[in-house]
What we know:
By secondary structure, this protein is of the alpha/beta class.
Amino acid sequence: MRTAGAHPTRAKVYALSTQQVIEWTEDGQPQAAAWRSESGAPPPRRVVVADDRMTADAAYRLVCEGTALLWRGDYQGARQLLAALARRVDRGPRRPRGRRGPAESAAEAFHRHRQEQGRRARLLGMLLVPLDADLAVPLRRAPDVREACAQVYGAAQGPSVISLRELLGLIGAHEWREKGVEVPALGGDRIHPYYGVFSPVRGEYVDLVAEAPLPASRAAAFDIGTGSGVLAAVLARRGIERVVATDQDERALACARENVARLGLAERVEVVRADLFPPGRAPLIVCNPPWVPARPSSPVEYAVYDPGSRMLHGFLNGLTDALTPDGEGWLILSDLAEHLGLRTREELLGAFESAGLRVVDRLDTRPTHHRATDAGDPLHAARAAEVTSLWRLAAG
């Protein structure tokens, strides 16, 4: 019988082609499996086998020490343990009084929040579950997750190990993909997001694209960084004759193609792989880049965080060469970064000027998501003041 809470073994980690592998000792025998982490987290180097006999306090001590728990007990027991770990992590470590005072600025509050999020993800990611060669979870009362895993990983090539937290994310994403997200700007039709592709649950930016006045020519439009394809679909539904939607993430490209096909728009929306702009010019070019100039820590965060504002500046600096005469570029951007002290309005306007662009008009809206009114959110002041804008830009 396996003993919960046994002394940890130091796992050997090595690369097999592009797949990382973790080794550990279990019941006195060496074991190995592929390591799966969509966030790019490295495999834990110390592992103990755990089951329902392990207490939450013991589990918390181990993960804080850097020891992962490979679960062999009841699946629902693992979920309960994860919730118990989350409560302990959220209480945080005890610090000497006065050691760390309140943040002196919004930027400092943001960076502290990101550090706490990173610590939380790291500790909760130490509770691991096995996957069989067919991507099934070989635990009592485990749900059938094979389809959800196959959508993300493709065909399995042997047993593997994944954090329970990531597995729950895959399951949730699979449910969203099956159900879809209703989009009022599409007349209530649904967009079906893939795992790791930003879901249009924040509809205010979609509504801006649905309401902004179109340029005189409706012959073509580019949707830069299309993601789920929702903005390309809105443009096509508004009467744009041909939309070219670009992205460089293979998962996003597949997601966008499936969505435009579901909506009956495949003949008018072409989804292509490109880093920003496709070849040619268009009278309308739309871009909803990540809003916050910071480093992402997971795949879906690439839709929110843009290190060094690379995509924002790339779009602005390439816009004049991609527009037809009298064309417009629509930049959809939240000012959350400004309220966080990560970018100023003067810097944004200066970027327009440096790119040879002028502002034709600006349409504003306020977010309606729950965080905007959650006084308990660490970034509540910034979120409560946030405005999302559609900047109509033209050359000159």
